[in-house]
Write a structure and sequence with these properties.
single chain; about 260 residues; alpha/beta; six-stranded parallel beta sheet; two-stranded antiparallel ribbon; globular; disordered N terminus
Length: about 260
């Protein structure tokens, strides 16, 4: 048995996972989800969702493909152009990329808002505190004083001065019904989803088919590179992005099996 074969996802700290392990990102993701469940910020159902995403990522070669990088650059430009950008946070997002989401919010001057399907006051507060521990200055989602039309579950609850009032919303790792409802509200949606055929990326203005642990830092990097760009440059980036071509490229990569 090799040293790699003996590495378990059940580790105490991320530092125990060797960075040169061929499945490093997958092991890191599994560890963070497990830790999130133990901390009370991630629902057990999140483990199933992450497993599904991991399978798609494996077929993508566990790397950011060129079409995803183009989408991430377009997402950065779209967020920089926004008047009221909001980054939506669910349990898996909080477990996987809390500091990275805080950094992105800072780079594009966006709000962070907790929005959950399995919503309880304790879980909302735990996620908000977890985000603060990772650099977030302010976290929305605790007020829940507005509702997304045409949704009858807990994720319809949003802040009136947050997602409800936003013009651009980043909604990573979300179910399609909520993405569709936000689309019907006229929001510009940026979606991160490893399945190009799911409803969320299908309705998104900017669908990003990539692992969130790669996608969010890349969007942030692009945003910092574009921080001094004028409005015309940012609009050109958004207009040049072809969402259909990006989805087709991701599906082709997944179906090709060329790992």
């Amino acid at each position: 048995m090799s040293d790699y074969d003996s590495v378990s996802a059940d580790v105490e700290t991320e530092e125990e996972i060797p960075e040169d392990h061929p499945r490093y990102q997958d092991l890191l993701t599994r560890h963070r989800i497990e830790a999130g469940v133990e901390k009370g910020i991630t629902h057990l159902q999140g483990m199933h969702a992450e497993g599904r995403g991991s399978a798609f990522d494996y077929l993508l070669g566990e790397e950011t493909i060129p079409s995803a990088d183009e989408a991430e650059r377009a997402a950065a430009a779209q967020l920089l152009l926004a008047d009221r950008p909001v980054l939506s946070i669910n349990g898996n997002v909080a477990a996987l990329v809390p500091g990275e989401m805080a950094a992105l919010a800072d780079a594009v001057d966006a709000d962070l808002e907790v929005n959950l399907f399995n919503r309880t006051p304790d879980r909302i507060e735990a996620i908000a505190e977890h985000l603060r521990e990772h650099g977030a200055d302010d976290v929305k989602g605790l007020e829940a004083d507005a509702r997304i039309p045409n949704l009858d579950h807990e994720r319809s609850k949003v802040d009136a001065d947050g997602i409800y009032a936003a013009d651009v919303v980043l909604v990573p790792l979300e179910d399609g019904d909520r993405a569709e409802a936000l689309d019907e509200m006229g929001k510009t949606e940026i979606v991160i989803d490893l399945n190009p055929l799911s409803r969320s990326p299908q309705v998104a203005d900017v669908p990003i088919v990539d692992n969130i642990i790669r996608a969010v830092p890349t969007i942030t990097e692009h945003a910092r590179d574009l921080a001094d760009a004028d409005e015309a440059t940012l609009r050109a980036i958004v207009e040049d992005f072809d969402r259909e071509r990006a989805l087709e490229a991701a599906e082709k990569r997944i179906r090709s099996g060329e790992l």
